[in-house]
């Protein structure tokens, strides 16, 4: 029996619609659940004071600082390396077996579990280079972890820039470098920003790679060689060791809000940028 | 052809290869200064390949190479010591599809001058006004120079592209690759008018798929077919009493 197109259409709408509904509901549930449990504990005092008694009491100020510094450091290292690599691969080399191998390698790197990066960071930076658990070890490790994402998104964004724009630029007497600076990168920027945001998001939420490399000290970091604890690690330790469920949820709530804010700011920036160029 | 002055561009046995395929099969041609050379021929004849050999834009395409000689003012542009960037500032190009860069009208026009290191605002303003006037676009855009070039119509964008080429102070030769193929009649005639004025200052090579346009604008015309230059001469002669039967067939619209 053939089903009439009308029925298949209705069925498709129903199925796809409920898939969407289900997805959104799960997301909303997670967020509402965590915020509901955690928000009551989020006060100004919680945000602005040091933890006491291993986190059983007091606030999360040092972990807040750690959560800001560590991803920033990781991006500061990974962004120039990643964008440089993708510009080199797309603009300065022809597609060869070598570039394909490199691309395959980056894709593989992107799929490696973060704890492996943590282990590598521990063996190489913390022990091997004798840097100890510190901000710098953690930043370098996270940078390596997010590099593939940044390379991949930048490369895609750069490839999406029409070739005719490059040709025009060359025909007006621009060098390759000038063309990259004036035509390619400005137009790839929204894509690059997306990669950076994904990278920051991953870094903020990362626990395994951080705990092995940046440590979990609860003191306020003063230099790049101090150990830090991020909110994710703090949450993990509070929950895992049963120190304080209430403080753990409050930390999780702040974490979720931070990630949302990072994304909102990024979208805002991108839209303003696009609007300015299209005027 | 008897010429009073030496040729602006001298081409000797130019052959261009796309991989194994020979797209230009030994072209020799003297292009005099201050006139419009029209190039006509069916698609695939090698007209675009020829133009892009003159500003070495073909260099950007992998697996493509040129043999023979192209002399600009007597200097071989394929000589290893030739500065390609400087060459492209002297030999500007207009593409078949208008390509405004995704920036303001103003920034489009000053793209070349900025690359050449012009920084002074008053100087750049002057360049913008002069170039847009020469491309017959000034009146239409003078109040919205900060608007994105992408928001102009196709015909306006092509004139913007012309202005952008004219803004280059080093400019001596203008290459046009079927610049009016997608344009409205008004923009087309504005570009044709501009060319007749511009040839007093520049050497112009106009590839066109529209034989009538060549008849209107070109002083001399060359007919290309399958990588060969079949015939070259005064436009009037090419369109009335060509030597070659194939030229005659093409200009009378019997093939192509
Ligand atoms: N990028 C390219 N790769 C391979 N062959 C090309 C390329 N561009 C042009 N050709 C070949 O060169 C010949 C001339 O093309 P073209 O110069 O574009 O002709 P026209 O502009 O007269 O239509 C054609 O046979 C075409 O197949
Ligand atoms: Mg062509």
Task: Characterize the structure shown.
The complex is a heterodimer of chains A (279) and B (256). The longest helix of chain A is centred in the N-terminal third of the chain and has 34 residues, at 5-38. In chain A, 37% of the residues are buried. Chain A has helices at residues 5-38, 44-48, 61-92, 97-110, 114-128, 135-159, 163-171, 176-205, 208-213, 231-240, 245-278, and strands at 51-52, 57-58. Chain A is an all-alpha fold and 279 residues long. Chain A has two domains: 5-39; 42-278, Orthogonal Bundle (MetI-like fold). A two-stranded antiparallel ribbon of chain A has the order 1-2. Helix content of chain A is 77%, strand content 1%. Chain B has 256 residues and is of the alpha/beta class. Chain B has one domain (7-251): P-loop containing nucleotide triphosphate hydrolases (Rossmann fold, 3-Layer(aba) Sandwich), CATH 3.40.50.300. Chain B is 35% helix and 25% strand. A six-stranded mixed sheet of chain B has the order 6-7-8-3-9-10, with helices on both faces. In chain B, helix 7 (154-166) runs parallel beside helix 8 (185-198). The radius of gyration of chain B is 18 Å and the shape is globular. The model of chain B has no long low-confidence stretch (mean pLDDT 92). The A-B interface holds A 94, 164-175, 178, 182-183, 186-187, 277-279 and B 55, 57, 60, 62, 85-86, 88-89, 92-93, 95, 97, 99, 101-104, 111-112, 115-116, 146-148, 150-151, 161, 164-165, 168, 170. The complex binds adenosine-5'-diphosphate (ADP) and magnesium ion (MG). Residues 18, 23, 41, 43-49, 61 of chain B line the site of adenosine-5'-diphosphate (ADP).
């Amino acid at each position: 029996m053939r089903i009439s197109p009308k029925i298949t259409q209705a069925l498709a709408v129903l199925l796809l619609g409920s898939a969407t509904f289900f997805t959104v509901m799960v997301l909303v549930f997670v967020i509402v659940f965590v915020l509901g449990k955690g928000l009551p504990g989020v006060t100004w005092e919680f945000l602005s004071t040091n933890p006491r008694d291993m986190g059983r009491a007091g606030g999360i100020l040092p972990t807040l600082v750690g959560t800001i510094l560590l991803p920033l450091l990781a991006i500061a290292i990974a962004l120039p390396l990643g964008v440089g690599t993708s510009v080199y691969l797309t603009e300065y080399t022809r597609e060869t077996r070598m570039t394909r191998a490199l691309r395959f390698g980056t894709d593989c790197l992107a799929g490696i579990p973060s704890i492996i990066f943590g282990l590598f960071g521990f063996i190489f930076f913390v022990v091997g280079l004798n840097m100890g658990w510190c901000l710098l070890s953690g930043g370098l490790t996270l940078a390596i972890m997010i590099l593939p994402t940044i390379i991949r998104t930048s490369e895609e964004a750069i490839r999406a820039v029409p070739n005719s724009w490059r040709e025009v630029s060359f025909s007006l007497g621009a060098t390759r470098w000038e063309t990259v600076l004036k035509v390619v990168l400005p137009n790839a920027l929204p894509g690059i920003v997306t990669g950076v945001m994904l990278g920051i998001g991953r870094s903020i939420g990362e626990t395994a790679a951080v705990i092995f490399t940046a440590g979990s000290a609860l003191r306020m970091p003063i230099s790049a060689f101090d150990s830090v604890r991020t909110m994710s690690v703090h949450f993990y330790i509070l929950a895992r060791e049963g120190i304080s469920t209430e403080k753990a949820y409050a930390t999780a709530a702040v974490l979720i809000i931070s990630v949302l804010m990072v994304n909102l700011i990024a979208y805002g920036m991108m839209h303003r940028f696009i609007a300015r160029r299209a005027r | 052809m008897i010429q009073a002055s030496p040729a602006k561009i001298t081409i000797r046995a130019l052959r261009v290869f796309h991989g194994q395929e020979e797209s230009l099969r030994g072209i020799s041609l003297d292009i005099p200064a201050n006139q419009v050379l029209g190039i006509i021929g069916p698609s695939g004849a090698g007209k675009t390949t020829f133009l892009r050999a003159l500003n070495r834009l073909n260099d950007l395409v992998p697996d493509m190479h040129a043999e023979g000689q192209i002399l600009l003012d007597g200097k071989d542009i394929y000589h290893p010591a030739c500065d390609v960037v400087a060459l492209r500032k002297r030999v500007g190009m207009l593409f078949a599809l208008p390509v405004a860069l995704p920036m303001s009208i103003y920034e489009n026009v000053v793209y070349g001058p900025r690359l050449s290191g012009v920084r002074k605002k008053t100087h750049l303003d002057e360049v913008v006004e002069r170039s847009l006037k020469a491309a017959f676009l000034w009146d239409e855009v003078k109040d919205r120079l900060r608007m994105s070039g992408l928001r102009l119509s196709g015909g306006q964008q092509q004139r913007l592209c012309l202005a952008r080429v004219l803004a280059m102070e080093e400019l001596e030769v203008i290459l046009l690759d079927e610049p009016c193929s997608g344009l409205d009649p008004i923009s087309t005639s504005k570009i044709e008018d501009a060319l007749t004025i511009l040839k007093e200052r520049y050497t112009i090579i106009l590839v066109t798929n529209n034989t009538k346009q060549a008849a209107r604008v070109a002083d001399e015309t060359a007919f290309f077919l399958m990588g060969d230059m079949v015939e070259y001469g005064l436009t009037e002669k090419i369109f009335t009493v060509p030597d070659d039967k194939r030229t005659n067939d093409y200009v009378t619209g019997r093939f192509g």
